[in-house]
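Structure tokens please, single chain.
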Amino acid sequence: MMRNSTALISFFIVLISFSNSIHAQSQFVGKYGNPQFTVELQQAQQQKLVGNVSGAEGTFQLVANVVSQNSISGSYNYYGQNIPFTGYIQQNQLVINSEGQQFVLDKQGQGSTQNSSLSNNYQQKEPAWGMAFNLPAGWTAQMADGVKYIVSPDQKKLLVLLPDTESTSLADLKEGAKAGIVEGTTRLMPQGSTANFGNDGVSVPLAGTFNGRQAKGFAIGRLSPYKSGAVVIGVAETADYNASFENEIKTFAKNIQFFAPQRATDDNGNVADWSVYMKGRKLSYYKTETGFTMKINIYLCSDGSFKYTDNSSSFGGGASVVGTAGYTGRWQAYGKGNSGTLVLNYNDGSKSTYNTVLKSDGLYLDGKKYFRVENDFCN
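Here you go.
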């Protein structure tokens, strides 16, 4: 069940160094609410917070910077528009000021159960994997190289989630578990035999070294009725590994829900889901005429953001003129079959809408042929 993780462990090591990247948890981390909406804040970096605001109109991503010990400043993305806000802590409340209004939200309790870090979680989905999972409150998640990394607020514990498209039986999972994780200065090997995990999975404890330090871990593999199962690996330095963390790993894996993965194309090569087809890709357009070259790149990031660059050059009289324009914002793609729509909502409030068509010779936006290639800017 761990065969897919060994090739990615190098990024796993780079992502977090337990001994050198420990930041104090911000007092803002947590979940706040009033009858109108809730705000959840997680620590991304020492002075940066990420999270979401949820209400009757939906759930919207937010980012914020800690500008002082007691105040933050940031924005949330409301259907492509970044709405600024400021906030500060007042006793056990978060006071938010946005668009001339003030909102007071009470901090929600963590509870006293052993798995209290899971009590205020929220669900995330990976449509291409066919998975939904509960992200522990206060933990930070990011996707890289097709793997989901989930880091504890104190950055001492790590959960790794990735799909398993190879295993079709419990026997396959058990065989895969024997390999452990061996890469560079990381060597985590199974301790004892595997055990059944519910009716559709197996689990095994791990021990050894992580980035050259003594570490322990726990790995779980689960099968899916939709042929795309899940592998969960939790790891921490030996001093930070305990029964509570192991229970968190088990609870996280147990609560994963499976559904039919959203495929970018069907068996005939037709677009099945435009958002999946575009996600994480770069769209490039080239045009060369006498004395003029145009190159447009649209980087469609997996988190819904985009970067648009327009580089053009003209030549005449021995001189050259180079123009460069760059824009950012949020993107959406939708439609049925091989005709769809791509919408770019720019951070300045403007919007571009393209008619997208997949033909036998490639992808077209508003009648112009674009190359859909690997994204070298973002995942």
